[in-house]
Amino acid sequence: MHADRSGRSLAREDGWEARMLLTRSRADKAGAGREAVLEVRGLVKHFPLTQGILVKRQVGAVKAVDGVSFDLHQGETLGIVGESGCGKSTVAKLVTHLEEPTAGTIRYKGEDITKLSGRALKAVRRNIQMVFQDPYTSLNPRMTVGDIVGEPFEIHPEAAPKGDRRRKVQELLDVVGLDPAYVNRYPHQFSGGQRQRIGIARGLALRPEIIVADEPVSALDVSVQAQVVNLMERLQDEFGLSYLFIAHDLSIVRHISDRVAVMYLGRIVEIGTETEIYEHPTHPYTQALLSAVPVPDPERAERRERIVLEGDVPSPANPPSGCHFRTRCWKAQQRCAVEEPALAVPENFAGTLHDEPVHHPSACHFAAERAAVAPPVAG
Ligand SMILES: Nc1ncnc2c1ncn2[C@@H]1O[C@H](COP(=O)(O)OP(=O)(O)OP(=O)(O)O)[C@@H](O)[C@H]1O
Fold this sequence. Notes:
14 helices, 6-stranded mixed sheet, binds adenosine-5'-triphosphate, 2 domains, 4-stranded antiparallel sheet, Rossmann fold, alpha/beta
């Protein structure tokens, strides 16, 4: 069996072919006018902080996600980046319904899925699948690869009649570049990259439209990361998938993403196309993140100005008033403490280094470009 051939035969089933036809070149994907498959608005997740052993009382809350809004368009990849603890994984869990939001809406094709339950929720969950970070711990060591990849069929038997499951699992293995003959092997018999391919095959089993990938290559060797990212890109083009791709590695996110959202302490501080964020960042936090990425070209490395942020990330249980970033920001003024900056396209901003006006939203009262040298595209 050949990967492309079986991929196409899989795609022909259940309308996947129609989605494939909708998928166009990467440059095209971030463009306006494409259908939003996911519309997230004002998403909030506060984890209660409690005290007491017998009688628990709430003494506060960890504001893991604190008002996040974005769209994910059909066939595109939206990368979400930010330091550890900024709320990326919590966004992933909310979108895949592994956590209930405190407030906000998540519309899948126009329908708010946060309000769904029972059969309606099950139907939606089929279309939004998750690929997890660590292929070493996310696969049950006592299950065969066939059982792992076919597990979603136990929950959604309508997706594959019992007699047809083995064939479907073998097709899925073939699609992700694994030998279908390995169906009876166990996870420990595979390398890290192969295990992540198994995780991806499981994510594809129900033919979802959206895949939420939470740090899918972070646990892998650098040499294997590119192979898995390239596989994900091929599968996206083949099956018209939309990706929410979460990572802290800015080079990998740049390679795969059409658009990028930068998060800090539970909020998106800047969002735009890959070029807007990496070549023309206007938020001080994005500029600081980019300035810390190693640049292999010595000439570029010399030209760039390293921005060293003062202090630690504040606790999400007690974030600063106004702009969450202000306590570490070299531009902060009184206004930043009292007025939360909206995530909006800056109206008048001074000191731009480029003639082109900025078109992408940035949550800073003093948004402006500066000479940041972006990391190269991985890969
Ligand atoms: N179930 C939970 N209960 C309490 N606090 C939580 C829970 N899950 C996450 N948090 C807290 O919410 C904040 C955001 O966590 P989250 O895992 O979403 O961040 P992240 O950006 O994905 O970081 P990392 O890359 O380290 O996973 C952190 O302060 C974390 O400790």
